[in-house]
Amino acid sequence: MTETSTPDDSFHVFDTTLRDGAQREGINLTVADKLTIARHLDDFGVGFIEGGWPGANPRDTEFFARAQQEITFRHAQLVAFGATRRAHAKAADDPQVNALLASGAPVITLVAKSHDRHVELALRTTLDENLEMVRDTVSYLVAEGRRVFVDCEHFFDGYRANPEYAKAVVRAASDAGADVVVLCDTNGGMLPAQVQATVSTVAADTGARLGIHAQDDTGCAVANTLAAVDAGATHVQCTANGYGERVGNANLFPVVAALELKYGKQVLPEGALREMTRVSHAIAEVVNLTPSTHQPYVGVSAFAHKAGLHASAIKVDPDLYQHIDPDLVGNRIRMLVSDMAGRASIELKGKELGVDLGDDRELVGRVVERVKERELQGYTYEAADASFELLLREEAEGRARRYFRVESWRAIVEDRPDGTHANEATVKLWAKGERIVATAEGNGPVNALDRALRVGLERIYPQLAKLELVDYKVRILEGKHGTSSTTRVLISTSDGVGEWSTVGVAENVIAASWGALEDAYTFGLLRAGVEPVE
Ligand SMILES: CC(=O)SCCNC(=O)CCNC(=O)[C@H](O)C(C)(C)COP(=O)(O)OP(=O)(O)OC[C@H]1O[C@@H](n2cnc3c(N)ncnc32)[C@H](O)[C@@H]1OP(=O)(O)O
Ligand SMILES: CC(=O)C(=O)O
């Protein structure tokens, strides 16, 4: 990533993936995972990385020790998260507050109650004592040389119930030396207009520097974050891919993209935005969640076009159906081919695949018709690019790519009385003028067929040794107009460098799998640059 300038302190991009993001059900990060994510976030250029709650568990305590030893942060400052001191104690004597200092983090975020009901019911103390807890903890940490941000938990609900008290908490934090007071929509129930009005009033009435932390329970966390910025907030708390407690937090990626591309505000180092898609997917890998295909800006479908009408306009100018150039966020345009495709979709897809269709309208029309016919039978080409490319080349080149010809195949499933099974397949093929008969066993009939195909062909095409089936999906499609149901199989294959998907459709699952396998191997040989011989 190029590094020419880093945004100044006047606007903060604050990431809490390692603290609030880790509160999402299903995420369980090791210290090593946290360190990896911290490196990605620092490279991406966020200003603050909230690493967890030191003292709350050994993992977070170890993370702070190791992060400071092992990572040379180029852009971000490390932030430790914790609560204000216990009621009727001294911050200086509170072990949890001192654990924040011991973490060595230069910045500390303190969560403070700002809703009167929470003070009385959850903290079981008085409103005045809560204000004292805020003042005492902030001033103690500031006197110890730390920069302090205060997260006012349940601020918006608290402001509705008792605006004067909610504002008193903001003033207490700010007057005690907090640099930013962050208004939190902890229950995530707010809507953008409410957030904007509240942030405006609180900014005017308190004069404090304000931030926003929005949970996504109404699906408005990103909109609420931007509404707060519109109202004067200069600190946004977000998480990568929107991970977080319950349904999640404001998603870092659409927030920074909006700030840079729609507001014209530089909040990341120069060039960082172009790394956004990669960073989003890399973090998804570390937390072991499949990246959401439909995530704004960074999802694989964010710039995927399916409708024929869209494609025909995109052919003239991609801007006609895209709100930004996908390159700006490191994503790319993709044309999808399906029964909603028209000529333009096929022409653009041909270009994307490097297949020259010239200006042959008849050829393009034939491809459109074949796609529509095959999709009616149950094929799906938007999920099987490799099968589509084989179909396209067959039409464009006037003959099917053939590396082998199938005489017959057979799969046997044997169930034995002792409960054991055996699966065996035999394939009879022709390749380079030679008749091949190969038999193999497998852990299922499709696996046996796959092995038999390899056993038969690998001697002739050693390139097949590198291929591996990495995904296999079956779907039963309902019969139409009185016909019986059909089966669709999608197979993903890898050669260690790239991956491709193929589709097969038939009345039974083994025949559908065979169709997808034939395309998978044929495409693998095409990719390897092998000349067709049959
Ligand atoms: C809105 C948010 O997401 S804030 C982040 C929340 N994150 C987490 O809770 C994850 C880490 N938490 C933990 O590991 C534990 O809850 C700990 C270590 C912090 C505390 O554990 P315990 O001491 O066993 O307390 P427990 O979790 O049962 O309850 C929290 C205590 O903190 C108190 N508390 C809650 N908020 C605050 C606050 N802002 N200031 C001071 N005390 C607070 C509660 O009143 C309760 O006190 P009690 O023990 O006297 O009843
Ligand atoms: C601080 C925080 O995570 C919240 O209020 O939601």
TrEMBL record:
Every Pyruvate carboxyltransferase domain range: 11-274
EC number: 2.3.3.21
GO biological process: isoleucine biosynthetic process; L-leucine biosynthetic process
Catalytic activity reported: pyruvate + acetyl-CoA + H2O = (3R)-citramalate + CoA + H(+)
Domain of life, per lineage: Bacteria
One Pfam family in the UniProt entry: LeuA_dimer
This protein's UniProt keywords: Acyltransferase, Amino-acid biosynthesis, Branched-chain amino acid biosynthesis, Isoleucine biosynthesis, Transferase
Protein name as it appears in the record: Citramalate synthase
Species whose genome carries this gene: Streptomyces formicae
